[in-house]
Structures are given as structure tokens and as C-alpha cells.
Amino acid sequence: MNRAQLLAAAAVLLAYAALCGVIWWREHSKRLRAQRDVAALGTAAEGAAPVLVAYASQTGFAEQLAQQSARLLHTGGVPVRLLPLGQLTQDELARTERALFIVSTYGEGDAPDNGARFAQQVMSAELKLPRLHHAVLALGDSSYAHFCGFGRRLDAWLQERGAGALFERVELDNEDAAALTTWQHQVAHLAGTTDLPDWQAPAFDRWRLVERCVLNAGSQGAPVCHLELEPVGAALPAWEAGDLVQLRAPGDPVRPREYTVSSLPSDGRVHLLVRQERHADGSLGCASGWLTEQAPLGTEMPLRLRAHSSFRIGDNAARPLLLIGNGTGLAGLRSHLKARAASAQRRPAWLLFGERQSAHDRFFADEIEAWLAQGVLARADLVFSRDQAERVYVQHCLIGEAQRVREWVADGAAIYVCGSLEGMAGGVDAALEQVLGRDELARLSDAGRYRRDVY
């Protein structure tokens, strides 16, 4: 290697080291700010027993409301203990006198990932809670059969264990303003204050559909469309890989639909990956049919971006990544790969992606090939279930590569799963438990190294 090549290589290494330093400092600063915020919550009214504020959140909304509830209590001089529900131990709960639980429901009545350990271990224990007075804010979506299922189950369990009610359970259907105001007034009463800050979510902005492309023409599956949208008359907002959009379709404007963003602000547009839904009677899904077929290019729609803290890169920026998904779940994995490619981060990434047919369902094949060539991806296993007589899915690939999966995790890898809750997510979770063991998988989840965006 000549002198010029050595200098060039050194420059690349220095740039890479600087970039890693920036990422580390940014995440370190976030952690310090979070630690200061939590410490500040516990300093009010010294000597008083803190109110426990525990949350179980999948997409970040319950966590946001828990933080706002904790700050409101702190404003009134009430010390607070704020933590994810999954970190709440049986002994700590037994010692608690007052607690607020802000919990969403995942799938059909299940606890979110950061509440799963509590639901499995603490709620199955023989436990008496005569000292505890509690209240539950249950987040849900009334279009599901088990509306607020986990929040209702938690509230009933607490009452069965002898806990009294600070006030009646509040159920929040999506972002119902009246229910949210009821909760806020009750928390303010506990805090002894009438100062109510604005908890309303950011307003929807106008966005325009500018591109639509079917990615799987001829597939046995329903059409999957790559959509691109731009803000109307406003600057492009900031977001991070893993974040979501909420948009309102004209057929049901009161129930926003959430989609994982598959692009970065540097792309200049919000990219979405949407599969068309068709009901048994042949009619199109309200939102998916409108987005993939009925809305002409140029259509304007209400949309807002939403941070998805539990699927962002967080402290995993410098870790190897094991990215697992199926179908439109490639959206969230694509955004993380774009971010890694843009950052020149060369810790390896491994993509395991499942779809139906290799001839028709190779979404973003050119990008995946480029990431392999550039070293952004160390390997990509694309699993097509209909290409052979016996169905094969990504969870089968994980089990077949068990030793390599264990090696990646031992090397510090973080695991991100994105795609369908039914079938894929449960199968992947079971496969990872088989490969790594239940305790190790729980440890990875608690450490933020096992993250899921499944729907």
C-alpha cells in the first residue's frame, strides 16, 4: 500500500472514529438527561413516600403519558418513582402505598414487551397488597375485540390482591381527549394542584402523496405498495429510524392508522410500505385500500410523525444488528439499514427477511445487494415460504442458524424484529427463546437489545 493509500485509509478510520464518538456522546447525553429527570422527580417533599408511576408501552405513547403524569405530581411537590412495569419487582410492589399504572394493550389483550415480565412472573405470584392504593390508565383501540384487555386485567388483578382504588380506571380509546382530561384532573388532584399543562398530541399536518409503486406484481399475496409523501407548505420535520407516522383516512378519520417510516429525513420524503387489505366481501380496507389504490397522486392527507422510542437505535448504535422481519415489516428494518449506511457504521448487520415468492416478493432487492457490497450488511437471508412444498419461515432460519445467532449475541448484537404480530412475531420469539433460552431473551429485552415493532 503506497503513502497516498495509507493516508486515505487513516482518514477514513479517523472519520469513522469521530462519528462513533458523536453517536456515543449523543446517546450518553440522552441517558444523563433522563437520569437527571428521574432524580429530580424523587427530590420533592423529602421524607414522603413516593408515588409509583409504572408504564407498559409498545409504541411509546403510554411511556409519554407516564412521564407527563410523573412531572405533574412533581409539580405539586409529590416525590415519584417512575419505571417500566417490567422492572417492578414483587417485593417493591408489596412495599408501595400509592401507584399509578399507565399501560397499553398489545395484540389481543396481551401486555406490551416492557410489561411482559411483570405479567408472567409477578401477576402469577401469590401476593397480597393491602397497603396499596392504585389507579389504572388503560390505553387501547376499540376496534379490537379485547379493548384495553391488559389494563382491565391488571386492574382486576390488583383488586383481587386487596389493593384499593385511588379513583376508577380510565380507559383511553386511541387519543380520546375527554378520557385523557379525566385522567389529568385526577392526577392533578393527587398532586394538590390545579395547574394543568397541555398534554395534547401534536396537530396533524397536511401531507401530499407524491409517489406510489407496487413492489410485488404477480405475487400470490396482496399488493404491497411503496409510498412517498411530502409536507404541504412546510419544512420537512425531523425523525429517526424506527419512528412511526399516524395518518387519517377519509373513511375513518377518528381512528388514525400507524405505519413505520422506512426512510430518513435525508431522503427528503416520508416513505411507507403498505399492504393492501381486502375483506371477505371483496371490499378494500379503509386505510390500506385508500392509500394503495383509491387516492390519486397529489392527494393531501392529515399526517403526523411520532417518536417510537422502543424501536429507535438508542444505545445500540455501535452494536452489531440482527434484523428480522417479514412483509411490510421490512420498512422499519430498511430505515435502520439506511441510518447505518449513512453513518458509515461498520459493525456488522445481518438481515433475515421472509416473504412468499422469490420471483415476485424481493422488496428493495437493489438496496439489499448494495448494502451487502458496501459491507453495511454482513449477510442477508431471504426466506420465501412458497418456493418449496414445505413452508419455510424466518423462525426456521433462526433455528437452523442457532450457533451463529448465539455468536452474534455473545458479540453484543442487538435484535430488532419488525412485521406481523400473528405468525411471524410469535414464531420468532419462540425460536429465539429456543436458541438463547428464556432468561437470556428476557435479559436482552431488559437491556434494550431485543426490540420489536410488530402489528
Describe this structure in words.
- This protein is of the alpha/beta class and 455 residues long.
- The chain is 37% helix and 22% strand.
- It contains 13 helices and 17 strands.
- The protein has helices at residues 3-41, 61-75, 90-95, 116-121, 149-160, 177-191, 286-294, 330-343, 365-374, 394-400, 402-410, 421-436, 438-446, and strands spanning 51-56, 80-84, 98-104, 133-140, 164-165, 170-173, 205-214, 224-231, 244-247, 257-260, 270-275, 300-306, 321-326, 349-355, 379-384, 414-419, 450-454.
- The strands form 3 sheets. Strands 1, 2, 3, 4, 5 and 6 form a 6-stranded parallel β-sheet that branches. The chain has a 6-stranded antiparallel β-sheet with strand order 10-9-12-7-8-11.
- The longest helix has 39 residues, at 3-41.
- The radius of gyration is 23 Å and the shape is globular.
The structural class is: alpha/beta
Tally of separate helices: 13
Helix content: 25-40%
Helix and strand element order: HEHEHEHEHEEHEEEEEHEEHEHEHHEHHE
Shape: globular
Q: What does the largest sheet look like?
A: 6 strands, parallel
Oligomer: single chain
Distance between the termini: 51 Å
Using DSSP, what is the number of strands? 17
Low-confidence stretches: 5-40
User: If you average the pLDDT, what whole number results?
Assistant: 90
Outline the secondary-structure elements.
Elements: H1 3-41, E1 51-56, H2 61-75, E2 80-84, H3 90-95, E3 98-104, H4 116-121, E4 133-140, H5 149-160, E5 164-165, E6 170-173, H6 177-191, E7 205-214, E8 224-231, E9 244-247, E10 257-260, E11 270-275, H7 286-294, E12 300-306, E13 321-326, H8 330-343, E14 349-355, H9 365-374, E15 379-384, H10 394-400, H11 402-410, E16 414-419, H12 421-436, H13 438-446, E17 450-454
Parallel strand pairs: 1-2, 1-3, 3-4, 4-5, 4-6, 13-14, 13-16, 14-15, 16-17
Antiparallel strand pairs: 7-8, 7-12, 8-11, 9-10, 9-12
